[in-house]
Amino acid sequence: MKFHILPIVTFLMVVMATNAALPPEFYWKSMLPTTPMPKAITDLLHPGWREEKDASVGVGNGSVNVGVEKGNQGQGGGTDVNVGGGNGGVNVHTGPKGKPVHVGVGPHSPFDYNYAASDNQLRDHPNVALFFLEKDLHHGTKFNLHFTHTLNVDATFLPRKIADSIPFSSNKVSDILNKFSITPGSDEAQTVKNTVSECEERGIKGEEKRCVTSLESMVDFATSKLGNSVDAFSTEVRKESEFQEEYRIAGSGVKKLGGEKGVVCHKESYPYAVFYCHKSDSTKVYSVPLEGADGSRVKAVAVCHTNTSPWNPKHLAFKVLKVQPGAVPVCHFLPRDHVVFVPK
């Protein structure tokens, strides 16, 4: 969902000038002095605060349009899952001749493991995030990928002092819409409602979750769960493409990052940067080097959930992969504007 940026920018400029808040990156450097900021974070700093002046951007709630093929067969079966921003959706492609279908997920993100995907949500559409099995993480596995631009690229971080002054609750939606000049009943208004509602839902058993509305709050949540000795990673794409391309896991191989726990933060569709962060003790994180047929390279991050038994048994991942809750580890690539923290 793309928000009309002019009234939002005007409002934020007035608030920021009034509060004279410090740039969020100062807090990161004070709390995590030996942890480099991943690109997913630097891309979301206010332009005036960025140390890296580059043109690349992250991907909203959507991220990677992907399919999996076995080994070097090229014609092997696969599963393609897309996660869109706003009302969202998942593109599911099974087999080399299967027709892509859109699985509408309503207000829920596929990274919310409480939700159930219903059978009547299937309809044609392309776009974004792959569920796959951990056993596919090996050299030579092929993926058909399409990395797209975020729909709310202008949704940068606010300093915590400012973010905390803005309402963020379902009983304050009218105030939120008024502050950002969003028309009630519009698609943008529904996106705001969906995001706030998802943030207020209870997590699954064993999950500790929080929606953070500032970079400072993200750092606090991650360090409260993992300590201050952490690394942070995000998927990095070095070449933009308008079309799906074939990648395979390169010879340098898959590398495990951290231990068996991590904090993953998923970017939400919202007028400014808001992340749905959750911590689980049954999480593995991998760095996955991908090489395109044209020589392009992607430093992808994959997150694998080793205990899916608490998930909704009708969750999209089980429908797509045709597995039962708790049977096998379920993985997904981390979208470009999402971030994961793991212990050093």
Written account of the structure:
The chain has 344 residues and is an alpha+beta fold. 20% of the residues lie in helices and 24% in strands. It is built from 8 helices and 17 strands. Strands 1, 5, 6, 9, 10, 11, 14, 15 and 16 form a 9-stranded antiparallel β-sheet that branches. Strand 2 and strand 3 form a beta hairpin. The protein is globular and about 50 Å long. The two termini are 35 Å apart. About 21% of the residues have low confidence.
Topology (SSEs and partners):
Layout lengths: L4 H15 L4 H8 L7 H4 L21 E6 L20 E3 L8 E3 L18 E2 L7 E3 L8 E6 L12 H4 L9 H7 L7 H14 L7 E5 L2 H12 L3 E4 L2 E2 L7 E5 L5 E3 L4 E6 L7 E6 L2 E10 L4 E9 L10 H6 L8 E4 L5 E5 L1
Antiparallel strand pairs: 1-6, 2-3, 3-4, 5-16, 6-10, 7-13, 8-17, 9-15, 10-14, 11-14, 12-13, 12-17, 14-15, 15-16
Observed structural traits:
344 residues, alpha+beta, 17 strands, 20% helix, globular, nine-stranded antiparallel β-sheet, 8 helices, five-stranded antiparallel β-sheet
